């Protein structure tokens, strides 16, 4: 027996069933005619995209998805299709995979392991299946599994016991830094233990917070990877099986950590802009490192002609900040405007004079400056139909070192999940490709420039101390005492944790951003705003 | 046998374990000494409050909660305590209830039915128990159940079969309009079918979006309610049982629908302000019905001396709007400021002149006005430590008829889940208590006053048409075709649905508000922003 299996690593648009069906048909015809495939495997929940969230609660949506998959059976002949869809039966919804061939349904499998942690809410929508599924095709006995199923040993074993000689797995496995190594290690470990080859097809593309990184692969029964598709882009490939032995094919190399983080951020911006129909993107360029990095990412995602920068100096902006911002805009070849904010700041100061009479200056006055910039940026965004990108990083989001409706104003927050130290690394990485960010921007002490001679370290521990504390507290759920025991000063830990605890209300109103760590602020970390919990 | 059971309907602060333990001890001592109770029953997850969300993933938090409940055993003698807590054992977390008496653990029950729909995410945190729990106390055989358990027939039956003559149920059942009738009807139906009396203890208080309405009750084995605690406030009461027959006691009357909605909104504001430590609240007062209602709610929640109004007229503000706003502020006796926004609007217009040269006026200019108001309000909020309340209603939130960082700026959105027609009903209801909102505000056509002679109906169907379409689409998940079939014009349905679909990005950045319907925007309705789904 020889079998050619196509892996359809496609970038779907959530909820657009008609477009997704057309993509499926096109991919199937391409795989049949150009690649000679006998069978083509698509990612998890192909028909709807993943995650469709509460669209899955709409009866009209579910009906449309079910109709679409049954109609697919007649759309393409001469190749078997393995597609994922939300299967409705007898009042229950399943996360299913159906095998269609020559107008006939060969098999339908219901996902057994439904993840309900981290960014996953599958038990909100789906009932779990409880049966393995094996079908015969061209003399081969093929088992079906879906994503989380293959992270659990029992399900692979049961499918093999049911007669499978080869496993197809439909996935929507989101990226975070290092995830691909974890994913391949765990799945290949299972494959090796069960001694069954596996075809792993992953979705690719950005969807709000999530990046799906592709990197679909085929492992032989020793758990060795004999084929790997590219990361971060669409690819339809075919792998030949001789019996149940996959023939060694091309393995796309894996990007290193920093490159993969950079590419994930670029893909996230690109897909958010494209899928939401924006004309391009704008951002405020301050001369600081954060906005420099976001500019680089935006230009790499969209092209320099689709990106516009706005420079909004105030009395506290140092000359070198404005100079560096201009240098950056020119290095990237983007259009830029210089709009000093003094007229608006003065107007508000005058309007508030009576109400504020007798009060001392505090962060209120700093916030007014940030909010004047927010108004300017949103006005240009509204007028031009361009997405406003915010430039805040994860360290700032953690401790609330940002102004609601000020620098937090915008539709998308690309580096919201990038800690400050990683911002520097990513900037240096980008400069290693071509020198676009002035060295001075990378080496000068970071400052919000909202008060005279202000620098971040006036009110925060140095980022070399802050970032690891935040990682331990936010991502690893360590207690203050554990963090102190690991060698951090009690006062630094107390300062950081108190700020994290107090600023949930800001994070709740922040725009979505791209998840690149194992726990991002967003659907990944769901904290009450009203809370008596104090980490210290 | 005679048994006195206390129902502790208490308002807890999520996450503050030490404070909650003190509340438990105080309530127990009060019940023992003042009410002569033998046993006191607390709401679900007493120790942590409900819902503690991802705090439940923190090992330090879980350890503290478990330590606290074991230590409670020795804190109060002479009365049995039934407390809820997140029980950790062998790598698993359970939503449990423990019975403590004289330093001994009499029983521990693990919740079997874990809701994972609507506002509930219990399967994210908890493993399900699989055993009924019955303990003997003073000769009575008492069964334990927790919230969702008693909405499912099987669990009550199994508990009775295990020997229970009487059920104690710990609950955190959130309010929505009409919920109390549904709750009592379902639970009493189960009680009647199983022929077992039930003590139902509910949490009370506001927690971010959720209101817990109390109204704890006791039903006899015929399913008749023989005791009911008040709605929307704390109450510790005792009910005597003669054998397993509860002695008829006082039944607090139920509020009618409109009163209960009004009281829920008042409690929501009061608890958000109090639990988050604000000095009071401020709001923008436009002379329109929405801000008039929010002012009334805020004053009823906090007292007139804790509320401040800001009137911010523009060139498009009609004289009568400013007059009515002043009348409202004076009728409620709140401090108010008048700050015309022209200086800031003019400043921005000048600053943007070059970038906007050659473009036509559009909603950008309207948004600038709304955002100038947002900057003013946030500045006063920041300076005074008062919570800024937004005044947008659910109809506006649905169709995006609001400006991000403008009228949507604020920490809490009290009427975010109140459709416009209900805003009118609530205003009339409030006026029926005392005439505080000028009649003209209620009868004039609603307008955002952001352009000359603008009224809402210029761009939206009348609210009598819009609101029922929105309810069907947003709350009931009906398709466009179903709504049209119900008698609505296709063009109205298309307009409304298209706007709902397009405005998810705005809702995602809106402040939390009080849930009063069966589906609010927030944790209740989780839609993707990037979405190819089109309802029409």
Outline of the structure:
The structure is a homodimer of 536-residue chains. With 536 residues, chain A is of the alpha/beta class. Chain A has two domains: 2-254, Carbon-nitrogen hydrolase (Nitrilase/N-carbamoyl-D-aminoacid amidohydrolase, 4-Layer Sandwich); 259-457, Rossmann fold.
Report on this model:
The structure is a homodimer of 536-residue chains. Chain A is an alpha/beta fold and 536 residues long. Chain A folds into 2 domains: 2-254, 4-Layer Sandwich (Nitrilase/N-carbamoyl-D-aminoacid amidohydrolase), CATH 3.60.110.10; 259-457, HUPs (Rossmann fold). Chain A contains 17 helices and 19 strands. In chain A, the strands form 4 sheets. Chain A has a 7-stranded mixed β-sheet, with helices on one face. The radius of gyration of chain A is 26 Å and the shape is elongated. The mean pLDDT of chain A is 97. At the A-B interface, helix 2, helix 6, helix 9, helix 10 and helix 15 of A face helix 2, helix 6, helix 9, helix 10 and helix 15 of B.
List descriptors.
17 helices; 7-stranded mixed sheet; Nitrilase/N-carbamoyl-D-aminoacid amidohydrolase; Rossmann fold; 2 domains; 536 residues; 19 strands; 6-stranded mixed sheet; homodimer; alpha/beta
Query: What would CATH call the architecture of the largest domain in chain A?
Result: 4-Layer Sandwich
Report the total helices of chain A: 17
Report the uncertain regions of chain A: none
Largest interface: A-B, 87 and 87 residues
Question: Which CATH top level class of the largest domain in chain A fits?
Answer: Alpha Beta
Number of separate strands of chain A: 19
The figure for the number of domains of chain A is: 2
Terminal CA distance of chain A reads 64 Å
